[in-house]
Design brief:
The structure holds 2 protein chains of 2 kinds.
Chain A (H helix, E strand, L loop, with lengths): L2 H18 L2 E2 H9 L9 H10 L3 E7 L5 E7 L1 H27 L4
Antiparallel strand pairs in A: 1-3, 2-3
Helix pairs in contact in A: 1-4
Chain B lengths: L2 H11 L5 H20 L4 H8 L2 H19 L3 H14 L3 H27 L1 H12 L5 H44 L4
Classes of the chains: A alpha+beta, B mainly alpha.
Keywords (chain B): Membrane, Transmembrane, Transmembrane helix
Pfam families (chain B): HAAS
Organism (chain A): Halobacillus trueperi
Chain lengths: 106, 184
Amino acid sequence: MNTQFKKGALELCVLALISEKDRYGYELAQDIMGSINIAEGTLYPLLRRLNKEGFLETYLAPSTEGAARKYYYITNHGKERMDQLVEEWKDFTSSVEHLLKNVGRE
Amino acid sequence: MRQELFLQRLKHALSNLPEEEREEIILDYKEYIDSAVGEGRGEEEVISHLGKPEKIAQEIKAETIWDSAEKDRSVTQFLRALAASLSISFFNIILVLGPAVGVFTLYVGFLMGSIVLSLSPFVFGFSLLMENAVFIPAEFFLSIVLGSLGVMLTMGLWFAGKKLYLLSLIYLRFNKKMMMGESH
């Protein structure tokens, strides 16, 4: 799949997963990779950007392995962003489905 | 590759980021690897899935450098963004460096020209004093007109420069997308 396209979708997935519950980096990567194949290393640059843009905030909490983990939670600003992305996603997928139906591929 | 080596290479590749930010990024990746290992995955395997540290650094730097170039506008920030862009691909020497040098030279040329123009009344006054020349009203008025024209041009170019800065950043971003889009 086209990488730019995937990246846009990845932002939506990250926001959606974190809005469901607070998550730490590795957990998030695992949950995403359950459905979409991404390069694991690219998740943190995205998280940093979403954090800088004020969509996500972080806090530290101890883990069972001892070292503290950085958890991400969604801000109100982030929720608005997510809603907007969900809308765009729905519009986009329904347009594609419509097109596929018209050309008789579905 | 072992964790220490991975983190060391990442740190090295991020060397021109602020210390604080770099440490934070290193901690993020350390936490990631530790969590994965804690769940029973092999260190080497996790690290190979993360990808090359230099590649990760490139992505992070591209994001942060462009951000700071937009927030605090300065020649240094711009040169950093330019350098980051050149490091993405060899072709960028042609696609980015060429136009950048061309546009920059043109801009500086115009700026110099308009500054010199702004100085024409002084040149007129100076020549009058030094050469004991006869006061010629036409020359005097001409120098005033050229001088004001120069001042206006300089001011205009100053604002145009700011626009040019932002436009160049947009181009660099676009270029980054084109170059990195399909690569991983």
